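Fig. S4 source data, part A: sequence.
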Amino acid sequence: MSTDSDILRRAERTPQVFAEVFDRHAGAVESFLRRRLGADAAEDALSETFLVAFRRRGSFDHAWESARPWLLGIAARVAAKHRAAEAKHWRAVEASAAREERATSGGIEEAAGRVDAAAAIRALAPRIAALSAKERDTLLLYAWSGLLPDEIAQALNIPVGTVWSRLHRIRRKLAPPGSNVARLTWIGKEMGDGTVGARA
């Protein structure tokens, strides 16, 4: 099977083969954008991300076999254009968590679980919104897209040491109150649907 790097080399001469890169990675990029911007803005942002990638296909660093970090880096920059919509999205997440906390349907254990999760999201969303844009990009690429620090460095075009430094600051800022050891393992559970966890 061809690597993404191979496909992008061919796409410089035969543009239509770029569609293979889209087929491989559109789902992951769309998932990232939906979480960043909400469902309404994600579709347009997805199109914009792949349009930018197509136009810049000649600049891909072929030292990497996978285009996923590169595409998610472009997606993060596209999402940066939607900061007002993003802030609105986090307010909606917080409000949704508050509504979920008041829900009483289902069994007692399920209701208790929803209340706990809603309270966690409600507490976390404002702290995520308060992060700098660079910190938020780093966090979400790590926690939601599962990129390793070196892949985040590639995506954001920054040194890997900068990624580690940002993750350290984010751990301190987002750690639960009273926590002695700040870890990111709880972030995926609290920010998403519980199926995507962050690596500590």
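Fig. S4 source data, part B ends here. The chain has ten helices and no strands.
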